[in-house]
């Protein structure tokens, strides 16, 4: 392709491409654009209206006269074609000209800013990211009006041509983490990147691990907090979810609402979440191990109840547990895929009906039904969906190990899990920090959320060039107006 007529001919094979001649006194203008991508008001008022007001203009005067900020003169065929697919209007003066003016007239169609759908909160702001990258950057800049906030934009995907924005605060974010993140995004070799969740998987340190190594969020306030801590945020045009890194394991059990509550309440809720995760992973496997190998360890107080509940159950504990776990997963998937109101009804009615029917049909015991139901509820307390899905899958290896080796199997599975977590990293940062490597100074915001007077420095494992947030000598200073 080495001429505009060839370019217009190729693009005209699409029904939504428009190319026509605008006659002037001395020569003609050839205008091309995709009508499905542009804003008609911009085209007719700012571009065509400008051309109609003057009959004879030079190419440079025409460029100056168009009242649109985003415009350029180009002779690069690949650039012109890519800009047309982004909603630009191409203006060529004369049939044999090798230059054209590219004017941005892209339509800004999309939903308006709404409340968070996944990370709903009682306290705090009610704004969530949308599918427009420019709107999402606006939501971040409103919360971080800081002169050193930087945005680096990269285009990835041979087919999708996706705009990806890397947001960070210069002077606070570690350069090594930033360069690693930029390099990995630039190295992405995939033709169609439709959502930021795909990009998360492509740039993670270990793509074969079921543990996520970046945190996705739809809340601008959470992103603002992460940026001020020294982390890097990545947004993609067309995706309502941003993600940030580097992260450690404990951040997945922290909800940003903890910071809007008094620190004692926030700490209590955080500990409940972490204990719930342990219960969700180990409860069913302990049941299998005890009922199969370690029946002598059951207290005489509970023994009659357990025996009477299992006396008519024809299956061994492992089959009983797997059946109930699969039923819970089926109900969860059915509720997630159906419309909201129907999904809630299916979840409640299905759980009650199937649970009652399973007990009456002697397919399971009352005791196990309570354990599995509590395990399912406990897994819902994890605020990050990807980690919640990990916890759900993690139960099954523990159940199988408990059936094979009993409590020893659970111990072996735990060691394997810890060994895997010790090897994981996020942009090169250890996944279990601050417990491994152990850092006493960074324990203040893991299991317990301290008061804000203790946040005088950033986490040392983020290696920020500016580790101090404020002078800790004045952290607890509360003076009255007459002092």
Automatic annotation (TrEMBL):
One GO term under biological process is: spore germination
Q: Which organism is it from?
A: Paenibacillus silvestris
**One cellular component term from this protein's GO annotations in UniProt:** membrane
Keywords assigned by UniProt, alphabetized: Membrane, Transmembrane, Transmembrane helix
Q: Which residues cross the membrane?
A: 272-293, 343-361, 367-386, 398-422
The keyword Membrane is annotated on this UniProt entry: yes
What name goes with this protein? Spore germination protein
What InterPro entries does the annotation carry?
Spore_Ger (IPR004995), UPF0353/GerABKA_families (IPR050768)
Q: What's the domain of life for this entry?
A: Bacteria
Q: Name one Pfam family in it.
A: GerA
The answer, when asked if Secreted is one of the entry's keywords, is no
- Give the family per the record: Belongs to the GerABKA family.
């Amino acid at each position: 392709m080495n001429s505009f007529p060839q370019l217009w001919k190729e693009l005209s094979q699409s029904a939504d491409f428009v190319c026509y001649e605008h006659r002037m006194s001395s020569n003609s203008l050839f205008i091309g654009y995709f009508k499905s991508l542009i804003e008609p008001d911009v085209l007719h008022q700012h571009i065509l209206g400008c051309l109609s007001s003057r009959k004879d203009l030079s190419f440079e005067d025409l460029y100056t006269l168009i009242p649109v900020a985003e415009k350029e003169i180009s002779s690069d065929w690949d650039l012109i074609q890519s800009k047309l697919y982004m909603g630009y209007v191409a203006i060529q003066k004369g049939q044999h000209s090798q230059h054209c003016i590219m004017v941005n007239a892209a339509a800004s169609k999309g939903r308006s800013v709404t409340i968070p759908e996944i990370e709903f909160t009682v306290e705090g702001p009610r704004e969530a990211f949308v599918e427009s990258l420019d709107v999402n950057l606006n939501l971040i800049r409103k919360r971080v009006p800081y002169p050193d906030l930087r945005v680096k934009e990269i285009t990835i995907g041979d087919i999708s041509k996706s705009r990806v924005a890397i947001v960070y605060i210069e002077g606070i974010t570690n350069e090594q983490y930033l360069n690693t993140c930029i390099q990995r995004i630039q190295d992405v070799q995939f033709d169609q990147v439709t959502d930021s969740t795909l990009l998360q998987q492509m740039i993670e340190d270990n793509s074969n691990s079921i543990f996520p190594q970046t945190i996705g969020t739809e809340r601008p306030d959470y992103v603002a907090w992460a940026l001020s801590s020294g982390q890097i945020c990545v947004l993609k045009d067309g995706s309502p979810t941003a993600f940030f890194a580097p992260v450690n394991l404990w951040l997945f059990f922290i909800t940003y609402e903890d910071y809007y509550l008094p620190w004692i309440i926030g700490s209590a809720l955080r500990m409940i979440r972490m204990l719930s995760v342990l219960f969700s992973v180990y409860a069913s496997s302990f049941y299998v191990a005890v009922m199969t190998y370690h029946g002598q360890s059951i207290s005489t107080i509970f023994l009659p109840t357990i025996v009477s509940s299992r006396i008519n159950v024809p299956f061994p504990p492992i089959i009983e547990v797997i059946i109930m776990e699969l039923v819970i997963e089926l109900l969860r998937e059915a509720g997630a895929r159906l419309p909201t109101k129907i999904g809630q009804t299916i979840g409640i009615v299905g759980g009650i009906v199937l649970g009652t029917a399973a007990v009456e049909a002697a397919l399971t015991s009352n005791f196990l039904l309570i354990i599995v139901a509590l395990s399912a509820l406990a897994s819902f307390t994890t605020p990050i969906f990807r980690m919640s899905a990990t916890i759900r899958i993690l139960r099954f290896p523990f159940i199988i190990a408990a059936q094979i080796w009993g409590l020893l199997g659970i111990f072996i599975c735990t060691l394997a899990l810890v060994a895997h977590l010790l090897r994981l990293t996020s942009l090169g940062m250890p996944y279990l920090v601050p417990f491994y490597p152990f850092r006493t100074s960074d324990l203040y915001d893991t299991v317990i959320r301290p008061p804000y007077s203790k946040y005088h420095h950033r986490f040392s494992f983020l290696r920020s060039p500016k580790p101090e947030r404020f002078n800790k000598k004045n952290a607890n200073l509360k003076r009255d107006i007459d002092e």
